[in-house]
Specification:
The protein contains 20 helices and six strands. By secondary structure, it is α+β, with helices and mostly antiparallel strands. It has four domains: 7-161, no CATH class; 189-246; 262-368; 371-436, no CATH class. A four-stranded mixed β-sheet has the order 5-4-3-6. A two-stranded antiparallel sheet has the order 1-2. A hairpin with a 5-residue loop joins strand 3 and strand 4 (279-287).
């Protein structure tokens, strides 16, 4: 009988093969508890599966944690999980609950902790759990291991299904999307700054009439000075394209301003030959921009299909329409056309000027009919004591001919008679109209303005 009892005791004290050694902090009786209960019925919660018999030793936990890689590092705060769980249990919980984290052997929610508040998504009576946010969920020290596991699993399941946690997940996703958008905006802003620096460099070349071959050396210089210039658009070919783009945009804005302000327009053309000996035509305009004194603007270099009057007329009108002018606007505001004295330009029967004036009645080709009226604005030709109504007839004819406001111009003329040294605002439209008339195509090359005495 005594031998049988000793045999039975040794059987229960015997450690099963292949099991992991118990934690050094656990007592011998705690380590033997699973085996003692092997033949006894185990009470398990309906939604909880049986768990392995023994908790892992600290050394085995550390070895498994080292093999987990970066994903464990992202989900753990200090990789300090409750001793109640085995490695397999920890992996099972983490795979099913990506939000689960631990700190000082206590559980918490990584999502709720990172969100901190659900803000406008918060419903009445719904708020984040401070215990889960601060990693204060711990294992109960009372009762058996199975009971503690059951309570802990119920807490995890309850939090995962809670409205507060669901709202926190939505907020976290929104923050992630916002972070991606912000990152894209930052990258886009960085690229824009680099592109702006390259465009300013190319613009400097055009403004200072420097060769395009200087573009690469200027880029290198700025990079040595610490300016971020990117890695593209550094060649002289890129500089050419950039300058053409900038010139096109500037021209578009200038033409839009001329059209919007309904300022008077003068057009100058001149024939030339390209390097390939093809006939071309330079087209320039003169107009007031934003109320300033009229100035010349090079519009385009047009290749001619033929040098006949009809071909030149069609090429000119196509160029103006392409720039943004409409035929209705030209009928109201195109006041003069200037060219050289070739018969194809000034022929009385079928010259370019004759064809244009028949289509645009307000157009002047030879404007010396209007010199006398414009001379009324030259104070050197006034009498010693001009009357308050001096020059009214000339001003009226000018306003009628060029579709200007007569009352406004007359008021400006009277203000000028009272204060000869002033610059009346009401007289500005006829003054700008007068300055729009160029003397000849040679004026385009010198870029000078028309003065009343030059007329």
């Amino acid at each position: 009988m005594k031998r049988a009892i000793q045999t039975k005791i040794s059987f229960y004290n015997k450690r099963p093969c292949g099991t992991t050694s118990a934690s050094s902090s656990a007592t011998d009786s705690e380590a033997r508890t699973p085996e003692l209960l092997a033949d006894s019925p185990v009470i398990i919660s309906p939604d909880i599966s049986p768990t392995p018999a023994l908790p892992p030793s600290p050394s085995s936990v550390e070895e498994d944690a080292d093999r987990e890689g970066d994903e464990d590092d992202n989900n753990d705060i200090n990789n300090d999980w409750p001793d109640l769980w085995t490695v397999n249990q920890k992996e099972d919980f983490k795979s099913k609950n990506r939000w689960l984290g631990s700190k000082n052997k206590k559980l918490g929610c990584l999502v709720c902790s990172s969100v901190n508040s659900i803000g406008i998504n918060e419903e009445q009576g719904v708020s984040l759990s401070r215990e889960w946010m601060n990693f204060e969920i711990q294992v109960s020290s009372q009762g058996s291991r199975e009971t503690s596991l059951s309570v802990l699993r119920n807490k995890i399941r309850k939090h995962a299904l809670s409205k507060a946690h669901s709202q926190a997940v939505k907020v976290a996703e929104q923050q992630k999307e916002s972070a991606i958008e912000n990152a894209v905006e930052v990258m886009t802003e960085s690229y824009k700054k680099e592109t702006d620096a390259v465009f300013r460099t190319a613009y400097h070349l055009a403004k200072k009439n420097r060769p395009f071959s200087d573009h690469e050396s200027l880029i290198e210089l700025q990079e040595l000075n610490g300016v971020k210039m990117g890695s593209i658009l550094h060649s002289r070919y890129s500089a050419t394209q950039i300058i053409q783009h900038v010139a096109s945009e500037m021209q578009s804005k200038i033409v839009s301003n001329i059209i919007a302000s309904s300022t008077k327009l003068a057009v100058l053309i001149d024939e030339a030959s390209s390097l390939s000996h093809k006939p071309v035509m330079t087209v320039s305009v003169k107009a007031s921009i934003e109320g300033a004194s009229p100035e010349f603007i090079f519009l385009d270099l047009v290749e001619l299909d033929n040098q006949r009057a009809d071909g030149i007329e069609q090429a000119l009108l196509t160029c103006l329409m392409k720039a943004g002018f409409t035929e209705e606007w030209l009928l109201e505001n195109w006041v003069t056309f200037v060219s050289d004295g070739a018969s194809v330009m000034l022929g009385k029967k079928s010259g370019v000027a004759t064809r244009l004036t028949s289509r645009f009645p307000r157009l002047f080709v030879l404007h010396y009919a209007v010199i006398k009226d414009f001379s009324i604005l030259d104070q050197s030709k006034w009498p010693s004591n001009p009357s308050i109504r001096h020059g009214e007839d000339q001003v009226k004819r000018l306003c009628k001919r060029f579709h200007l406001c007569t009352d406004q111009a007359l008021n400006g003329m009277r203000d000028l008679l009272e204060e000869p040294n002033s610059e009346p605002k009401d007289l500005k439209p006829p003054m700008n109209c007068m300055k729009t008339f160029p003397v000849s195509t040679a004026e385009w090359f010198h870029m000078t303005s028309v003065h009343p005495l030059h007329l």
